[in-house]
Amino acid sequence: MTIQTKTKQGVNIQEFAKQFTQKSAEQEQQRKQRIRKAVVKHLISTREITKDTEVVFMPSSKVVPTPVPKRRENSDFQKDTRFRFIDPTVIEDKEIMLKYLDWIARPRHERKPQLQKEFAENHGIHYNTLTAWKQLTGFWDEVKIRRDVIFRKYSSDIFYALVKRARTGAPREVELFAKMFEQYSDKFEVENTNPVQEIPLEQRQLINTALKNIGLAAVLEANNPEEVEGETQTETSAGEDA
After folding, report:
1. Residue 158, class by beta-carbon neighbours within 10 Å (0-12 exposed, 13-18 middle, 19+ buried)?
2. DSSP letters spanning 129-179
3. Is the CB of residue 95 less than 8 Å from the CB of residue 102?
4. How far are the Cα atoms of 104, 115, 123 from residue 130, in angstroms, in the given order?
5. What is the pLDDT of residues 195-240, one digit of tens each?
6. Distances in whole angstroms, Cα of residue 211 to Cα of each of 54, 101, 229
7. Average pLDDT, stretch 23-40?
8. Which 8-state DSSP code applies to residue 48?
9. Distance of alpha carbon 212 from alpha carbon 218, whole angstroms
10. Is the pLDDT score of 2 beyond 60?
11. From the centroid of its chain, how far is CA 14?
12. Which is more confident, 198 or 9?
């Protein structure tokens, strides 16, 4: 008995890829032909061309999309921590702005140069630009931050001068020293922690009668006009009944 075996024929990958590519190219060409026929048919139906018009389809070039730059949000601009109150997006020359803030925060005799016009000339910026910066929201808040830092170096000398004057017994300096270092306050508030208790009616009537007897009926009437009027009416009606 003879047994015959069949071996599976091997596949040529290169040949298969070539046939697949050719088939794909043919299908793409057929697809383009169908699109062109549809376009010509539409142009004839709209009477934009006639049947005798020769239509030439130009090869289309590949369109590469232009990348759109990512928009920077305000939070990205605010990462410049050198400014706390001014929006840095509205400032073109940030370095000059920082120097100008430091310049204007100093006393006039410490400014170099002395005049704003000279500052503008030295830094190559227009004088009106500096004036416009002063109108920006938060400009003077930025100046205050730098002024506090600059003037803080005088604190020790000022406090020492205050202490020297207070030790001589000068009243104003003593009071200021107490307020600054001893939490002294010349304003006191008295808080009544006892709940307000209403006086019974009988006692109020006795008090009112006593006030009338000593000639303070006018005071009583000014403070409690309704109550006094009620008592007067009661007395009048009692007299009529008598």
Report:
1. exposed
2. HHHHHTTSTTHHHHHHHHHHHHHGGGHHHHHHHHHHHHHTT-HHHHHHHHH
3. no
4. 11, 12, 11
5. 666 778 787 777 777 767 766 666 666 666 555 555 555 555 545 5
6. 123, 71, 15
7. 80
8. S
9. 8
10. no
11. 66
12. 198
- Number of C-beta neighbours around residue 196 at 10 A: 5
In angstroms, what CA-CA distances link 165 with 102, 155, 176?
33, 16, 11
DSSP 8-class letter at 108: G
Whole-number Å distance between alpha carbons of 162 and 106? 23
- Separation CA 100–CA 112 (nearest Å): 11
Residue type, 146: R
Q: Using the structure block, give the residue that is written with the tokens 């697949």.
A: 20
Give the pair of three-digit tokens for residue 29. Answer: 């060409």
Q: What is the mean pLDDT of the chain?
A: 76
CA distances from 88 to 93, 98, 114, 159 (A): 9, 11, 26, 37
